[in-house]
Design a protein that fits this description.
Elements lengths: L2 H14 L25 H9 L4 E4 L14 E4 L1 H19 L5 E7 L9 E8 L2 E5 L2 E3 L2
Antiparallel strand pairs: 1-2, 3-4, 4-5, 4-6
Length: about 140
């Protein structure tokens, strides 16, 4: 594949998937945006996970080489985990097609909450131009 074709492919793919938001995630139409500002400890996040209201994730996904270590763990609601899985699937395809070879995941938090408000991903290739920046909006 020529360099121009690769760049055009990356640009088209990036344009088609800039953000995955909670509005795109499966949820009830009448649902109110959740507020996780009171989840201010790891124990509180784990308690909500035990109730099925949050799920444990690895910020840098295991599917892409992330390790299950405390610095890489976060808790997010199930609908956000589903949206995140869609993004990971796309990133895996991009890696297989050699369109990306680097990934940075930056969680954003509000206040003292242990639940991130969004997961911002920066996918690039060390030898190719272009990038992809999908974001999973959580709350």
């Amino acid at each position: 594949m020529s360099r121009i074709a690769i760049l055009a492919s990356m640009a088209a793919l990036a344009a088609s998937m800039p953000t995955v938001s909670i509005a795109q995630a499966p949820r009830r139409a009448s649902a109110v945006r959740p507020d996780y500002s009171q989840v201010t400890s790891l124990a509180a996040a784990r308690a909500l996970a035990a109730e099925g209201k949050l799920v444990k994730i690895l910020l840098f996904p295991a599917e892409l080489g992330g390790e299950d270590i405390p610095e890489n763990v976060a808790y997010i609601p199930p609908y956000a985990a589903e949206a995140r899985q869609l993004v990971i699937g796309t990133l895996r395809r991009f890696m297989a097609d050699e369109l990306i070879d680097k990934l940075e995941v930056v969680p954003e938090y509000r206040g003292e909450s242990f639940v991130p408000t969004k997961l911002v991903m920066h996918a690039t290739h060390s030898k190719k131009k272009g990038s992809l920046h999908p974001t999973v909006e959580i709350w």
